[in-house]
Write a structure and sequence with these properties.
By secondary structure, the chain is an alpha/beta fold. Helix content is about 35%, strand content about 30%. The protein folds into 2 domains: about 140 residues, 3-Layer(aba) Sandwich (Rossmann fold), CATH 3.40.50.720; about 230 residues, Dihydrodipicolinate Reductase, domain 2, CATH 3.30.360.10. The longest helix is centred in the last third of the chain and has 18 residues.
C-alpha cells in the first residue's frame, strides 16, 4: 500500500485519480495537485460521490521546482505521476530527483516555443536517476504506452523477429461539435501540424542504435503534414482514413525492438476536422509565436485553446468507439507471420465509469497500471526507462482487468496497407 502524488487535473488526470481510488489495495493514499485547486476539488468530490473514498488535494505551480520539492517532501509519496502538460516534464523530473522519489509520465517533453517532441531531453537523465537509485518510467499512456507494451509482448511471446510495425490510432467518437479536440487543444494541434516522420532501416548498417543520438543504422524519412494516408477497416469501427504522422513511441521502439526494419504511426481524422484545421492554419490561428494584439503579446494557438470546447466537457456527449493497436510483420519458427493486436474502447461506457470520454480513459488507465507495476515491484529498475523495456505480461493482464481488454488477430501474410495518393 502506497502514497502517490498525481500532478494535473485535466480529463486524463480525472481517469487516473478515479482508477487509483478504485484500486485501494495498492494506492492507499492519493494526493491530487494542480495549479487550479478548484479542478482538484471537483475530482475529489466526484470520487467521494462515486463511493471510492477520500483523496487529498493541493495547489502547486510545477514550473517552480522548489515549491514542488517542498510538496513532495511534505507528502512523502513513493511515486509522482506526471499527468500535466508535456512542457512540464523536465521541471517535474528535476523535482523528483531532488526530493528522491520515483517518476512516471504519459508523454515526452516538448519545449513551449517549438512544436517538437523527442526523447532527447529526457533520456539524458539516465545516469542521474540511476545514481540516486530512482526509476523514471516514460510514456505510460496508450500511445505511447500500451502500444509499446503490445510491441514488447509480440516481440517476447509471438515472434522470433519483428521486421515492420504499424501503429494505428482511430477515434470514431462523435461529440456533436463542428470542431473540437479530444485532449488538450494546444498539444493536439501542435502534434498534428508537424511533418510526418517514419523510420526505415538502412541495409548497410546491421547494428541497433547505440543511444538517443545514434540513428546511423536507419533513416528518419519526413513527409509533409498529413500528406500520406490509407484507408483501414478498423474492427468495430469500420473503414477510416488514417494519416501518417510522427509519434514519440517510434523513437524508443527503434532502440528496443531488435531486428526492426520499419516503423510507422497512423491516426484517423474526419474530412470535417481537417477542413477546420486547414482554415485555422491558413488564418494563422495555429501559430505558436507571439503576435501583438492591442498592445499585448498573445500566442494564437493558446487563444484558440481558450475558445474551443474544453476536452473535459466532451465526455457526456461523445458517442462511438476508439480502436488503437499495432500490426506486426515478422518471423516465427522460420515462417513469415502477421499479427494485429488492438483495443476497442467505448466512449459512453468510459464516461459511465469515470466521467470521461474514451480518449482520456485510454490514456489514464495505463498510467494507473504503470504506477501499479512500479509500486508492487513487478517492474524494477534504476534509471530512465521506456515502458517496453519491462516485462509486458503483468501489464497486459491488468489491461483486461482494468477496463481495456485487448484482441489478437492473425492476418494473412499477403496483407499489405494500401497507401493513397
Amino acid at each position: 500500500m502506497s502514497t502517490v502524488l498525481i500532478i494535473g487535473a485535466g480529463g486524463v488526470s480525472r481517469v487516473v485519480t478515479h482508477k487509483c481510488a478504485m484500486n485501494r489495495d495498492v494506492f492507499s493514499r492519493i494526493v491530487l495537485a494542480s495549479r487550479t485547486l478548484s479542478k482538484c476539488e471537483q475530482i475529489r468530490d466526484d470520487i467521494k460521490k462515486a463511493g471510492h473514498g477520500e483523496i487529498e488535494v493541493a495547489q502547486i505551480d510545477v514550473e517552480n521546482v522548489k515549491e514542488t520539492v517542498a510538496l513532495i517532501k511534505k507528502i512523502q509519496p513513493k511515486l509522482v505521476l506526471n499527468i500535466a502538460l508535456p512542457y512540464q516534464d523536465l521541471p517535474l523530473m528535476d523535482a523528483c530527483l531532488e526530493a528522491g522519489v520515483n517518476y512516471l509520465d504519459t508523454a515526452n517533453y516538448e519545449p513551449l516555443d517549438e512544436a517538437k517532441f523527442e526523447y532527447k531531453w529526457q533520456w539524458p537523465y539516465q545516469d542521474r536517476y540511476k545514481n540516486k537509485g530512482l526509476t523514471a518510467l516514460l510514456g505510460s499512456g496508450f500511445d505511447p504506452g500500451v502500444t509499446n507494451v503490445f510491441c514488447a509482448f509480440a516481440n517476447k511471446y509471438r515472434f522470433d523477429e519483428i521486421h515492420n510495425i504499424d501503429i494505428l490510432d482511430a477515434n470514431a467518437g462523435d461529440h456533436g461539435h463542428p470542431f473540437a479536440t479530444n485532449f488538450n487543444p494546444e498539444v493536439n494541434i501542435r502534434e498534428i501540424t508537424q511533418k510526418g516522420r517514419y523510420w526505415e532501416k538502412s541495409p548497410t548498417a546491421p547494428q541497433p542504435p547505440k543511444d538517443y543520438t545514434d540513428w546511423d543504422n536507419g533513416e528518419w524519412k519526413e513527409t509533409e503534414p498529413l500528406s500520406v494516408k490509407q484507408t483501414f477497416d478498423f474492427p468495430e469501427i469500420g473503414p477510416k482514413k488514417a494519416y501518417l504522422m510522427f509519434h514519440e513511441e517510434e523513437e524508443s521502439l527503434v532502440r528496443n525492438i531488435k531486428g526492426l526494419k520499419r516503423i510507422r504511426f497512423w491516426m484517423t481524422f474526419s474530412d470535417q476536422y481537417l477542413t477546420h484545421l486547414r482554415v485555422l492554419e491558413n488564418v494563422g490561428m495555429t501559430r505558436i509565436d507571439p503576435v501583438d494584439y492591442e498592445g499585448h503579446k498573445i500566442i494564437p494557438l493558446q487563444f484558440l485553446k481558450a475558445v474551443l470546447p474544453d476536452p473535459a466537457s466532451l465526455g457526456g456527449r461523445t458517442k462511438g468507439k476508439t480502436n488503437i493497436g499495432c500490426i506486426f510483420d515478422g518471423i516465427k519458427d522460420g515462417k513469415r507471420k502477421k499479427l494485429y493486436i488492438y483495443n476497442v474502447c467505448d466512449h459512453e461506457k468510459a464516461f459511465e465509469e469515470v466521467g470521461s470520454q474514451a480518449i482520456s480513459y485510454t490514456t489514464g488507465v495505463p498510467a494507473m497500471i504503470g504506477a501499479k507495476m512500479l509500486l508492487t515491484n513487478q517492474w524494477k529498475g534504476e534509471g530512465v526507462f521506456n515502458i517496453e523495456q519491462f516485462d509486458p505480461a503483468p501489464f497486459m493482464e491488468e489491461l483486461g482487468k482494468q477496463g481495456l481488454p485487448w484482441v489478437e488477430k492473425e492476418l494473412p501474410v499477403d496483407f499489405e496497407m494500401k497507401i493513397e495518393k
